[in-house]
Write a structure and sequence with these properties.
- This protein starts with a helix and ends with a helix.
- With about 230 residues, the protein is mostly helical.
- It contains 11 helices and no strands.
Amino acid sequence: MTLWDATLAALLLLVSGDRELWGIVGVSLSVTLRAMLVATPLGIAAGYLLATVAFPGRRLLIVLTQGLLASPTVVVGLILYLLLSRQGVFGELQLLFTQTAMIIGQVLIALPVLIAFSLSAIQGADPRARETAQALGASAPRIAWTLLLEVRFALMAAVCSAFGRIVSEIGCALMVGGNIAGVTRNMPTAIALETSKGDFAQGIALGIVLLLVALGINSAFAFFQGEARR
């Protein structure tokens, strides 16, 4: 099958509503969205604390978080695999090769991005917003909310960046998910599998969907950057 024929077959799969293909897309988006629902509040809260609270070891945590931005996802998957395997510390939970394990892995990958971006955004915020809220006698939660609203566009960009990183990662998802059809097979792992089998049509179709998702995320990221500058 030529590249042209494979591309036409891929487009046919997309428009025909192929059940297997869209099932893989559904698993991928479902796992990623649930991971973001967990990681986003945790990451923003941690970034806020690092930016506003002085405590012993703060500088070390900031350096560690920034260093983890470039951590290979396959290493995260390896560590999580060892922890969740039968001989691992959490082996009794029987989470290995489940969507829950994939979500945990994606949360761990997304957190450094969210924390680092949130920390940078809050540190770069206009200090008068926090000072004004304090002068008016606002409570600590109210001050935090005011400051987060001040940098909301930068925080949205952080969320977009984290989503883009985890929706396309393959190393951790393959190791802790197992690429089980209908259960843990997502777009990146399916693309790798179908390409290795020579089924280029489905691989290209999934690649198109993944590219569209990435393009949408990058477009949203650019939009929020533009709004922040304004």
